[in-house]
Amino acid sequence: MNHTTRKGVTSLILTLTTLTAIDAHSHGTMEVPESRIYNCFLNNPENPSDPACAAAKAVGGTQPFYDWNEINQANAAGNHRALVPDGELCAGGRSKYAGMNLARSDWQATPITPKADGTFDFIFWGTAPHATDDWVFYITRSGYTGSEPLQWSDMFEFCRLGNVPVGADKRYTLNCPLPQLTGKHVIYTTWQRADSPEAFYTCTDVILGDGGTPSQWADEGALQAYSDLAAGSQVTLRLFNSSGNDLETVGYTLGQDASAADWAFDFANAINSQSQYARIGVLDPANDTVTPVVSASENRVYTQADLNLSHEVDIQPAGGNGDPTAVITLSPESLTGAGVINLSASQSSDPDSDPLTYAWTLLAGDGATFSSTDSVDVALSLSEPTQAQTVTVQLTVNDGQASSSAVVNIQHNPQSTGGDDYDYVYPDGIGNYVPGETIVLGSDNNRYLCRPFPEGQWCNINSAYHYAPGSGSNWSDAWTQL
Length: 482
Fold this sequence. Notes:
Blueprint: H1 3-20, E1 29-32, H2 36-42, H3 51-60, H4 63-66, E2 72-73, H5 80-83, E3 110-112, E4 119-125, E5 132-140, E6 155-161, E7 171-177, E8 183-193, E9 199-208, E10 217-222, E11 234-240, E12 246-253, H6 260-274, E13 278-284, E14 289-291, E15 300-304, E16 310-316, E17 329-331, E18 334-336, E19 339-344, E20 357-364, E21 368-370, E22 377-382, E23 389-398, E24 403-413, E25 424-425, E26 439-441, E27 447-450, H7 464-467, E28 479-481
Parallel strand pairs: 3-9, 18-24, 25-26
Antiparallel strand pairs: 1-4, 2-9, 4-7, 5-6, 5-8, 8-9, 10-15, 11-12, 11-16, 13-14, 13-15, 17-19, 19-22, 20-23, 21-22, 23-24, 26-27, 27-28
């Protein structure tokens, strides 16, 4: 598609949008600090002087900049990690916004400073506000360089909010405690609607602290000491590498009864003296040291930033029963058409080596049957779906006294009944459709050709109710079924 054609389509879309705004999806992006895509929109989208925005334009053209408020997944329903793959986070998993995923060190970043209480007021402009299930904020770990496109494992969660009321100006004020990090980072935000499965995604480049040398320690979250423990109780820190394999295990046994605050302090000291890769306590940014405090909730777990580790704290009360751990492995991890997914619970474990029982449950998905629901290894048979779906399976393991569960999401796509000759699976790529040329695969698994100009201008209107091929009330105004 040449640029002149796109500009012509864009101008028509912008004109028509004013007539159909009442049918539009909810939209929004981070305004303070400016999200990556909103900054590019403000930075002369037709001829950006910012090098990163210019590179993004070279990948996807200018239209994504004008649609800065619609980086979304229509059917997320909280399953963000399943629908937004590693390397595609800043585009929300949508090819239209692929330019936002570019691994560059020169994305324009906004310096932000916490208030006296350590919090910051993020401002999200909800151009079409809706009831909210949750807001979740993630930030890149210390040591993240941006040399590769952003992945889920590059970040940790630092703030989660519920249904924050929207202001009369359509702005959400989202107050979050800022993590004790310095230097340049990416803040990633998910906004999950409560009145729809639709969710929105935002990458925001920021500079924390004085912008100097980043800490060698990545903040992994608080050490929560929920209750007092008796003498003989065991607390264990397990560290895992980026592949999920065990890297280090450090255990601590209480020599006497202790309050939650006291054993948390003693455990932190034990970790700091024995662990090669972790520290527990309060980080002093001035000298980059971590010092434990006597508190049940103020100590935080830090891991060596350049190793991209994750952790788990196991607590086994004296004379008590340790909870089992449910783990699901599967092959293949996704499926097209009818077939079988092999699931296994063989990597599940129990700290006391108690025998386990297994229970498999189908939480979501049509046309799925288990070969067994109580075996270590089961086969999940899936019939041909009528449209793409996410199949959700839960495993519960029980040691006779306690149980734990794990959940896995499986992407299940239909085989194309009309051949594989199509450009997009609708609504992916919307905004890039060329009248008379673009072919999409509709939700009914049929192929549709965008009608020639001028009718084809309706193909790019993001209103599934009216123009979704094969299902919208006026779909034939925009599409021809092949």
